[in-house]
Every structure is written in structure tokens, then in C-alpha cells.
Write a structure and sequence with these properties.
Blueprint (H helix, E strand, L loop, with lengths): L3 H23 L5 E7 L18 H9 L1 E3 L2 E2 L5 H10 L30 H7 L3 E7 L19 E5 L12 E4 L2 E4 L13 H15 L5 E6 L11 H4 L24 H26 L5 E7 L27 H4 L3 E4 L8 E3 L3 E2 L3 H9 L14 H4 L12 E5 L6 E6 L2 E6 L5 E4 L15 H12 L13 H8 L1
Parallel strand pairs: 1-8, 1-9, 2-11, 3-12, 4-5, 4-8
Antiparallel strand pairs: 2-10, 5-6, 6-7, 9-10, 13-14, 14-15, 15-16
GO molecular function: arylsulfatase activity
Keywords: Hydrolase
InterPro entries: Alkaline_phosphatase_core_sf (IPR017850), Sulfatase (IPR050738), Sulfatase_N (IPR000917)
Length: 476
Amino acid sequence: MLNKTHAVILILNLLIFSCKTSETIKSAAKPNIIFIMADDLGYGDIGPYGQTKIKTPNLDELAAQGMVFTNHYAGSTVCMPSRASLLTGYDQGHASVRGNPVWTESGTPVNLKRNEITVATELKKAGYKTAVIGKWGLSEGVDKENMPSEHGFDYFLGYKEHRHAHHYYWDTLYRNSEAFILKDNNFALKQGKYTHDVFVNEALSYVENEKENPFFLCLALTIPHLELTVPEESKKPYQNLGWPERKMNTKGHYKNDKEGNTTYAGMVSRMDRDLGKLFDKLKELGIEDNTIIFFTSDNGPEYEKKDRFFNSNGDLKGGKRDLYEGGIRIPFIAKYPGKIPAGSTSTHVSAFWDFLPTVCEFVGVRPTNIDINGISFAPELLGNSKAQQKHDYLYWEFNEKQGPIQAIRQNNWKLVWKLEGSPELYNLSTDIGETKNLALEEAEKLNEMLALLKTARTEHAEFPLITRKVALQKRK
């Protein structure tokens, strides 16, 4: 145990580090904040995380100028609950949205609560202009209600519902609360404007228009979510390389292009190309040095969940709809010139629900909800690792046909438990691929983790811990 003198010294040191972090933040003008989120991009799909086949030069440069996180996690393993955790600061044991639309107890989609506080709400208190461009996907089954404007966003252009975002030539987006029609678009024939391009051009216009104001832009891209389709120009660099062909289903819900591998690579590279346009725009406007850029994905990969041609998961097990590392551990890069150490790597364990308190610390406001699960990682970003508070644990649950499945990480121990299955216990420090279940060998640790799991969630009427098969049968 520490004696009193050592305890006092420790507290003083922590206060000094904390003060340094706060002083560093306060000394700068309010930074612009751009949060870029790809859709279903795997941990290993970009160069900074080991990708060799798909070229991502702009993200490579972002990593060289910023900090690469190796232990950052999505809010969930599917899009809607993951985005809810990002925006609200709550993990999946406490969030209002804990699953995609049709997997609720009643069959009715659960959206964010009316006027539920988000990171945009908090930033508006600090005088920020706020926008979300791209995939919102949190206003399911409602018309002109509970839109981004009710959650702190001044401006919105994009998909209201997540199923519409499955199509890159969809004809109806929303601008704020009104339908925004792309009159020449036909998703079935894949004709008209590629919606990804619409969002990128809108983002360029937005930063141009708001360059004199502190702004928060959430750029929620849909690449590389199925359906797999991209203009031919983006495929050309990957053709005639001798790659194996992967035939795609072109007749179902997803209007995929015929061949998957060149399409997938072309989509990721098109995203990277267009992010380069955004980064260049910041330089052109003279606001690059006062802009924090975050880049990430909303969950693990689907296209390459099993096929390993691109090795989208790296060394991780599983992908989208799994609570193994491949489903929830995601790329996360942050850049803030002169503040975040360039070319740095962080092993700090963090998650989407940490984003809200982190940016609150950067702009000098306190989160409204004091019970959020998120912990600011601003000290880590600014190089003050010794002052960085750590999570006691991280918690996820997945409420679809396969579930419920629960997972919890505490330090290097990871528990994965399917409701009707046997518990799986992994030591991530020696087994990042979750290949060896230690549940029988480490009975004491297993019991500790199971006990912790019981305390990690609050009850939710629409997401009870019963098998989804039972929930579906009860609706019939």
C-alpha cells in the first residue's frame, strides 16, 4: 500500500499532468472537429494497419501526421447502435439504441429518444456550427420526426434510414427534414449520381462556408458497405493484376457489381482519394492547423468476414455481427497539427462512447449527462499518457438472430458469451486472434468476468436478454 506521503505526491503529479492537458487545450483557438466514419471498413483494410493490396496514400499520410490507435473499439458490431454510442457517450449496456431496426422485442424500430443529447448538442453549447453529412440511419420508420436537427445538428444531408444507405444510386436523400431528390438516380440500374460523391462535394462546400466559424462535421460515409458498386474509373488501377475473381450476387437486395475484389478495392481507394480532397481543402482555406481530424469505421468488415484475400481483419477473428475482435476493433486515427504527436501510436483501450467527453474536454465544456460511460482520451491524444484515465471494462451486446451475444473486456481479458452457448474467455495479450478458449483453464478469472458481466447493463424493454428467435416468435 502507498503511505500518505507517496499518495500525496501521486495526486499532485496527476493534477500537474491534468493541468498541462487543460492548458494545452485552452491555449489554442477552438479547433474545428471533423469526424470521418467509413461503413464496414475492416481493421486491416487501410495502409496504416497493414493493408498491402489496396492503396490508401491519403490515410497513410494522415497516420504519419497523427496518432494511430491499436485498441480502439466501435460502439457495436452493426451500424445503428454503434452510431448511437458514438453520438451519446453510452455503451451498449446503457444506450437507448441497442440494435438495428427489426431486432427489437416489439418489431418497432428504436431511435434516439426525442431531443436526446449528443456530441453535437454539447458542441453547440461551445458555439460550434454542427453538421452530419452521409448516413444518419437513426430516424427509422418516422417521417420528419426525430431528425438530426433534434439532436444538435444545424445541417444534415444524407440517408435518413439505414436500408436506403445500402444503395449508392438511391434517389431520395434528406436535406435537414425535407426530401432531397436526385431525379436522375435509379438504384436498380445503378444510374445517376454516386451518392458517395454527393456527400464528399457537400463536405467540401460545408468547410468552405463555415471556415470562419468553429465547426463540427460528422462525415458518415457509406463506403465500403454492401452493395459493392463503384464507377469504373476507380476499378482500373486494380484490373489486370492477376487477382482472383470473386463473383457477386447481382440480383438480390444489394445491386452488386459482377466482380467483388476490384470493386471493393476501388471503393476503398475512391474514399481515400476523396478524403485527400478534403484534406487539401483544409490547407487551401488555411484552417488545417486548427482542425482535429478523426478517421474510423463503424464496425468490422462484412465483405471479407471469411474470405481473406485482402486480410481485412488483420490478425483478428470474425467480422461484422461478431463480438470477436474482428467485429468491433476498428481503425482509429487522429490528427491535430502541433498538438497530437505526429507519427505516434497508442495502445490505449478506448471506444466510441469516449468521443463525446473527449471533444468536450477539447472545447472546454462539461458533458451534460454525468452518467455517460465514456472517458475523455484527450490526455492520450496530447501525449500525456500518465494522466490518462483508463476504463475498468468495456461492454458490448449484439441483439440479432444470432444473439443476444455479450462481450466484455477488462485489461487484457475478454469474455464472449452467447446466451444459449458456453462462455469463451481469451487473453488478448497473448492471443489477439481469440483462438484459445481459456474458460476451463482459468476458472477463477472466468467467474470474475461473469460476475462483472451481470453488472454491466441496465434493462431495456425492447432489448431483453432472451434469444431473438423467442422474440420473433412472440410477435407472430
